[in-house]
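Collaborator request, handled under Task 6.
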Amino acid sequence: MEIFSLKFWIFFQMLVDVFLVVMVIYFLRNMRAGWHREATTAASERIITMLEPLLNEADRTTRTFTNQLNEKKSLIRDLNEKLDSRIISLNLLLNRSEAWLQDPSPKMAVAAKTNVCDQQESIIQMHAKGLNAATIARKLSMSQGEVDLVINLKQKFQSMQ
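Structure tokens returned to the collaborator:
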């Protein structure tokens, strides 16, 4: 009495052989994929190590460029403020000379001798106190157009800031 027949053992051996073949194919595929992954990982790491210094240098360059741009903006803003101040002074002198040519009275001659910057500050202070342009012009012996010009330019500068 045989426990298992010969056919059973042959069938069992074939199943084991098929199973082993399938397992070998499976392991070969996994090994090949693993090699591929390892190769890909190694290549990507080499690329990253090559690109990292370039990216760091680009970042440093960007920061330097940004700092220089901010510095230039500051210089331009300062130059604009100085130019605007000189333009106001020139306009005041032109208005004063036009007013003096129209009315060469002694009162206008006294106003022409005073410092332009001091007059600008006086106009701005009086306007801040609430005086209107006509009153300021009368008190400083200036033309109302000159006072209006200073007040308008000062308001434009304040709105730009």
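The cover message to the collaborator said: "The chain has five helices and no strands. The chain has a mean pLDDT of 82. Please let us know whether this matches your experimental observations."
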